[in-house]
Amino acid sequence: MGPIPLCVLLPVVVLAVAVVVATEENTVDDEYTWPQWKVPLVRKRRTVPLSSPDFSAHPQPELSGTCGIECQRRLPTPSLDDLEQFLSYETIYENGTRTYTSVSVQGLNEVTAWSRNASSSSRHKREVYGPDTRFTISDKQYSTKYPFSTSVKISTGCSGVLVSPKHVLTAAHCIHDGKDYLNGAQKLRVGILKDKSRRGKGGKGRGGRGKGKRRKGEKGQEEVQEKEENGGKGDRKGKGKGRKSRNRRSVESEKPSFRWTRVKQTQIPKGWFKGVTDGLAADFDYAVLELKKAPKVKHMDLGVIPSVKKLPAGRIHFSGFDDDRPGNLVYRFCSVSEESSDLLYQYCDAKPGSSGSGVYIRLKEPGKKKWKRKIIGVFSGHQWVDVNGDGMQQDYNVAVRITPLKYAQICYWVHGDSSECQQA
After folding, report:
1. Region class of 232: left (phi > 0), else alpha (psi between -120 and 50), else beta
2. Burial class (CB in 10 A: 0-12, 13-18, 19+), 173
3. Residue 219 lies inside a defined structural domain of this protein
4. How many whole angstroms from its chain centre is CA 319?
5. What is the rounded CA–CA span in Å between residue 175 and residue 186?
6. What is the torsion angle, in degrees rounded to the nearest 10, for the CA atoms of residue 303, residue 308, residue 314 and residue 320?
7. Quick check: is 29 in a domain?
8. Measured between alpha carbons, how far is 409 from 388 in angstroms, rounded to an integer?
């Protein structure tokens, strides 16, 4: 066989290089794209009434006794019966009545293998709020626009995040201490950020107080949201001299206040209750609140990822209402230090009050160039963790991650129909 002509060889080489480059680009792009999961189905078996709770528990600023990564490695893998017991749940209604609902889990074996532990076992001595890296979002131009507008305040002193037009995801310990419901949970309310300046300030000319201005604000809301999606660039355009003449009083008048809404019902997994999970209670520190009235605020969807540390930068974000900055929304981001199949350990600066915040990341939607934020966890707060299972406590900031099973359960609570929750 003679030598291959250059005119034939060159196109083949170019094609091979193009295939390699395209493959590499797809691989890199996959790292920035939301993975698609087939999730199991959580179905209701039966619901029975329970006696009304005492509502005698008191909020705890810190949780202790959490079974950490190494501690959990020593625990046996939960069976299907165990998981169904953990995911069965209590519902507490606004009139103080309570029910218990048992569930069945279907299609668990069809779910893509979930990483049991993607973390290293390195130790870090926690730096207790060294340089404070939190950002106070006090200007209504940002705090009442997506994604910050999805953050809500819970009347028991915690935070939460809107996951549907009328459902809030928060931490279970904000409602229940593992033995009883908190004394403020019977008349639970959720605070939605609103603009103080909208009331009492009318537009020019005919039309009275506020109506014209409110329409103007709503008209430009989508435009502001799109700017925020692009990193907030462009928001300063058009301010001109008015921006320079802003004084402290005008900035103060733009601070948001809350519009409070009563909670219709609250659902908490039995896995959070004492004596049910044998060391895994922290894995189920989440609850969903259904509001009596849906606020006209954009919510944030749930997402599922196998590992945060393997993502570019491995960074998470969340906003909440920290106790030391009353009335203000506080935003922060940081990298995850450790992760297990159900928990994220990190050192984001946070204070009590931020518990229950939605932990989110931003990735591209499959097949699209648009970036989308999704909630991948619930910030549980500062906890003392039993790392090795020997009783020695080490402190971390801990978040409960959204797994395929938890996604299925929360989605079922939100939609009431598990057929809408087959893919994350």
Report:
1. left
2. buried
3. no
4. 9
5. 9
6. 50
7. no
8. 30
**DSSP-derived secondary structure letter, 116:** S
CATH of residue 148: 2.40.10.10
- Give the CA dihedral 119, 122, 127, 131, nearest 10 degrees: -60
pTM of the model: 0.79
Question: Residue 129: phi, psi to the nearest 5?
Answer: 45, 55
Q: Residue 119's domain spans which residues?
A: 41-196+255-421
Residue 351 lies in a domain: yes
Q: Are 164 and 414 in contact (CB under 8 A)?
A: yes
Helix, strand, coil % (nearest 5) of the chain? 25, 30, 45
Q: What is the largest CA-CA distance in the chain?
A: 91
Looking at this protein, which amino acid is placed at residue 370?
A: K
CA distance 351 to 66: 19
Q: Are 121 and 71 in contact (CB under 8 A)?
A: no
Q: How far is residue 160 from each of residues 101, 151, 354, measured CA to CA in Å? A: 24, 6, 8
Instruction: Please list the pLDDT of the chain residue by residue as tens digits (424 residues).
Output: 455 454 444 443 334 434 333 333 444 456 789 988 888 999 999 999 999 999 999 988 777 777 777 788 788 888 999 999 999 999 999 999 999 999 999 988 766 555 544 444 444 444 344 678 899 998 888 888 999 999 999 999 999 999 999 999 999 999 999 999 999 998 999 999 987 654 444 444 444 444 444 444 433 343 434 444 444 444 434 444 444 433 443 344 456 689 999 999 999 999 999 888 767 788 999 999 999 999 989 999 999 998 888 887 788 999 999 999 988 999 999 988 888 889 998 888 898 899 999 999 999 988 888 899 999 999 998 887 776 677 777 778 899 999 999 999 999 999 988 778 877 7
Contact 162, 147 (CB under 8 A): no
Question: How far apart (Å, rounded) are the C-alpha atoms in residues 151 and 165?
Answer: 13
Number of domains observed in the structure of the chain: 1
Nearest Cα to 108, choosing from 413, 405, 318? 405
The whole-angstrom separation of Cα 404 and Cα 57 is 31
Q: Is residue 156 in some structural domain?
A: yes
- For residue 372, give the 3-state DSSP assignment: strand
